[in-house]
Records
---
Amino acid sequence: MNHFSTFPFVRYCIVLICGILLYRFLPLLPIYFVLGAWVFISFLYAFLFIFRRKIKNQLLIGFVGSLFLILSAYEVSFLNDEMNYPQHYTHWSKEISHYEVIVDNLVEEKENSWKCTGEIRSVIVDNRILSTSGKILLYFDNHSVEKPRYGDIFFVKGKPQEISSPKNPEEFDYQQYMRNQNVGYQQYLRSENIEKVGNKPPEILINFALRINARVDSILTTFVEGKNQYGVANAMILGQRDDLSNDLMQAYSAAGAIHVLSVSGLHVGVIYAVLLWLLKSLKKKGKTGKIILFWLIFSILWSYAFITGLSSPVLRSTIMFSIFLFAEIYQKNKDAYNTTAFSAFCILLYNPNFIFNVGFQLSYLAVFGMIFFQPLLNPILVIDKNKNWIYRIADRIWKVTTVAVAAQIATLPVTIYYFHQFPNYFLFANPIVILLSSIVLMAGLGFAILANLLLLFDLISITNFLGQCLKYTILLLNETVLWFEYLPLSVTKFLWISTYEMWLMYALIFSLIALWKTRKYAWVWISCGFVGNLFFLNFHEKLQRNQQELCTILSTPKHSAITFVNGKNAIILANKGFLDSRKEIGFRVNNYWSSLGVRDTLKLDLLENYHSKNNVVNIRSQDSTAVISWNNKTFLWIGKNLKHKDFEAKNVSVDYLILANKSVKDLSQIIGKVQFEKLIIDASYTRWYADKLSNQAEEMGLKYVDLSRSGALKIKNNE
């Protein structure tokens, strides 16, 4: 307890997080009750603190202080939730006919649209203009609308649509992800729905940052040749991953280096460490030297934040390392744990929702891992760096390796929990990738600055040469990553652990560390208990998975997909566009397969003509129509547009009739031709046709499921 008390901000941060979690799970507590309790606890804590020498009850003072922080965190979380404000547009979301919105962030380019967020400033409800607030996610059709700019003001016809919840089992919860950013609604806009009425950037600083971002992007576009090379430069320097191919991102993921492709704590940390090393001599030049050192590094860190357009991940990391910088230069008795916790405390007070951000969690876990585990790992191999330069290089490589391993240990359970895979060669890949990516980052930033100066004097040939140097440096990084991906068994996929198992893994890690440090026999039994618990859970899951037989008709907009799972084997039937898209399969299916313990998968195109029979399903597909037999159940999938014709087959009897791709636009085309127990309208249908068929099925008294509304349909063997 006395040891823990030396880290006050670690304790404060833990208590603050408890208050944030309290709001997340109990958001409906009467806010005036919470405010009244906060006022009472504040006065009580002030009284106890003032008379602490007379009361002499540290436990009581600590308890009341903790209550004060928990209630403060609840209040801050409530205030941060913009939907609680009475003028928020969502209070009239169903009655809105028109609204005025201003683009308030960086505009991203997607395949068929421009994506950005906007602030709704006013709405029209029942011919009344109401002043409002609140963010919305906007998609502008890029075939009919010019690229919006920060500060553009649009008058929009239509009402915002709520961002839908996940429609497939274990699918990434994009609704909650955007809700954490105070965005709950979205709208797709075409030229006929909008009218641009002006441009007035709401924030001068952000507008300035985005202009710098656009200028650097134009330089990279012009002078860094090659789609992948430009994509990596854009991702690492500016934080925009729009131009990265899915194959390259998968390669970085397999090497355990996907974090390299997004501006984050790693990038800010690299800049911070390099600058601190280059300018360390200033620290020895007294008070003046320290002031110059602080403001120089501080200015460069925040300049980088502006280059990225003040994106949230870099903003968090810049605040964190700014606090580290102050502690490094000015604190005599600095403590790494306290400094790290203080930075987290400040960031969470600024935005409590950051605690639910995966990047925030991984950043602080990695920093904690470096602080805690690296000093334990470093003495395992002692290298006398004073012998010669070879030993000095070896010592540096070993230290980088221990840093990478320390960060991996701290983030391992969370990484498996969120991403369901593990890069098997991370120990070898990470030191190399971190070194090369650091060179690329510093070279890229240097190039962005120098190119602006060189272009002022029309020195294009020199700028071209520097751009080529940066290009080949990135090419070396990409080829290194791809080489690791091509190695056999480069990544273990489809890993799945529950929240409880994740915490068990952390408990096991710390019990093993305690055993290593204390050499006490009690920790052997504690560690064995955690191992036994994990083993039992894993054994129980394997028994269940070996016996599972499951069919799931997925809800995939613009696509049609069905997956069958037998034990640890899975088959997915879908259209070619879905099967060829790593992004779609990764987003819609992979997490689900991971949760079921799938190891082997087979992909089959529903639109091809073939007959396939295996130990899971029997499929006969012809002319965009498929008959599927699975465990005494029969499915008829129709993917061909019948137009105004009737279904050609007669007297067909199946358990499930699946309609896809607007194949049937009126149920009269198939009624009497096909006998079925349940009608499935899959998500490839547009909303209008899906509603039409649903209404017809309702009138006819048919059992039906509209996948675009209800989500995926799971059918078990015994149903």
---
Amino acid sequence: MLSLRLAAFVSLSTCAQIAQSAGLLRDSDIEEGLSRLAAPVLIAAGLSPVSTKVLVVDDDRLNAFVIDRRYIFLHSGLILRSKTPEMLQSVIAHEAAHIANGHIARRRQALQLSRNAANFGTALAVAVGAASGSGEAATGIALGVRGSATRKFLSHSRAEESSADQSALGYMVRSGINPMGMVDTLDIFVGQENLVVGRQDPYVRSHPLTRDRMRSVETMAMAHDDLPSDPDMVYWHARVVGKLSAFQRAPSWTLGRVKDSHTEDIKHMRSAIAHGRAGNLTSAIQSIDRALSLRPDDPFYQDLKAELYMRNRAFSDSARAYKKAHDLRPKDAIILAGYGRALLADGKFSRALDILEQARVRDFRNSALLRDLGVAYSKLGKHAMASLVTAERYALRGRIKDAKMHANRAAAGLPVGSPSWQRAQDVIDIR
């Protein structure tokens, strides 16, 4: 029987491998906004907003997918293409329907992805294929896993799409969300089914769009097209899109368009990011301080201020700003990880280790956090522990040979039977 820790590595490796292959964009502000947008439809679907998270894959192609009931993945390109909160909520509702209707559970059972540790590589391969939109990216992860199997796992039948559409529309209506957002989203993909596969967006390949499906959605949505937009949802959608855009577009592009921002605080936030990325720290801090003057207790603007300092190597200032963000949102693992990284860069190794360990307890799936934690242990001469967290980082990234090498090194230097020694054994026991 698998230990709980090893089982966690197997089940969570899919998320981590996506981070490696396509890059997960981990940002507390963006994830908070997506959580707020998702909560109504998740509740309507019978899912817990606490247990089911929406994460962003750094990919400008249009796609969204689920692998299990804990994560809904949205490509950054799809988020940026959404014009309204209802459009984004319709995608989340549709993916939630695939979970609630059992589509993913049946497919996982058929492929036996999680039966035992021997299927570790298969799970990783599916995740890589999901992130890339093709089976080819999985080749180097699981020997003998066919690309066709990956595509089969990710692709939904027309019957499943119709079922998910109907359920998603019901979630939206019950949540008071205008379902025309789904029509607007599907309009983006109209005509792509006639393109050669290489020119289609991944979403079309995994979510077949037909004229009958489009007509059915339009008919159902038009019966409720008088539902008004929720101002809070409009704000958070604008904030998510505005921040993501500012980090992904050229600073000059952002600065030329900040005047069109939904609110003043979002305008100043976008300006701060653009100036920071252009290397103008003074203007960046002035801009984020203007945003903070409008929302003084906003932990995410404090977090951004800390990140701006960090990007410009003002480590002491960054640590102080992270401390303020942490005080405002003490349970946020991403903010804690940033705080620890700033302390580490500022040479405060013991304090950094304490903070980074607190972050690890809350979220041990964060590969960047584990890297920083390994550095902190090494700086303090705790080399066995440095090897342990390095082993866990490699395991989460699917680099099992490297993980076992570091785990064996860690086990040799840790007290036999201790919790840390057991963690090393869990990595060694991966098959």
